[in-house]
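Q: I'm writing up a methods section and want to include an example of the input and output format. Could you take the sequence below and give the corresponding predicted structure tokens, formatted cleanly so I can copy it straight into the document?
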Amino acid sequence: MRIPTLPPYLALLGHVIKWLLLATLVALLAGSASAAFIYGLDWATDTRNANRWLIWLLPVAGFVVGWVYLRWGESVAAGNNLLLDEIHDTRKVVPLRMAPLVLWGTITSHLFGASVGREGTAVQMGGSLADQLTGLFRLSGEDRRIILMAGISAGFASVFGTPLGAAVFALEVLATGRLRYEAILPCLVAAILADQVALWWGIQHDHYLIPEIPSMSLWGLTAMVLAGIIFGLTARLFAEATHSLTGLMRRKVSYSPLRPFIGGVVIAAAVFALGTDRYIGLGIPVIMEAFEQPLAPWDFAGKLMFTVVSLGSGFKGGEVTPLFYIGATLGNALAPILNMPFGLLAAVGFVAVFSGAANTPLASTLMAMELFGAEIGLFAGIACVVSYLFSGHTGIYSSQRLGHRKLGQLPEGLKLGEVADWRKRQGEQKKKDE
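A: Here is the clean output for your methods example:
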């Protein structure tokens, strides 16, 4: 006897209703977690600013964070890369402990002065909380991939207030040059609702004002290409320096809690030597300044170095807000050289360095339009794409896969963190063949 099946449109309607409900649950969880995180982050920043001496306790804080992760968090220490690996190759549900551990670890890092961001924390909380629905609703492997992506988009949207960019980020970040459209509905719904949930909790996102956005011209197009090249190379430098320091610390310091302790000593000493705390924490005030007035041309380099040491030594947080800082201040420094308005090039750099470092040009362009207005879309789009190309086959997420290579001969599906070893093996094989 033939078993009757639902008509195609009824099956499609059921699919849509299913993911609307699941995405709503993900949004409630991720948006609420991000709201708590942002409130905690604001408290940590205000407390540190009112008690500058806390920077001297950064080595101790780093040791404590490292010890807690060694004792209870080894299974989730990979952070965003764990989420990407689970989406590509589903194995087991991400432990729920990821959310409270990264929340506590990031707030602690900010309280005592590490230069880290907030995206990594929001994404990890969103992904881990969303994955708890896998067992509750007995989701299949494919559905689990989608709900993890929805969690990523919800976390990203609720912490930055950019739901369109966040939804595309979750689709785009998995593999370079490739989008996962099967998850577009849940990612978009989860991002929009999570942003609203955070707003309902009273969260206020940062607002950036650009005094002038000129009409596109031949020189404007040329300037965006030139700036995009510099932004992409800077993104590549940031990613490679962070991964190199992480690898060096792991090889030289076997006891993991000592790594952030050492990093904390270096950062605290640098703050004392420079006589400024301009390069620690999120750095939102400096980002705001980059849209309004000329800044010191070395600000981007200062933030880059402080962030590389913080993340490379093991402090918890994210890379994105420091990349916004680096991009905005670098754009500010390039503005007079390229004869472009400070605010415009700061805004373009804000998203373009992130585009190159995360290999997400479409998401970055949408973020620019959400943050700065649709008029910036042409400028940001050109710079983000060029930055993406010039950052090469590297990035801040070592578990990101090669979808379509940018240039040269590389196998699809290879992790970015494995590119260097693959090239080394190919070089050795070539020598043997010769």
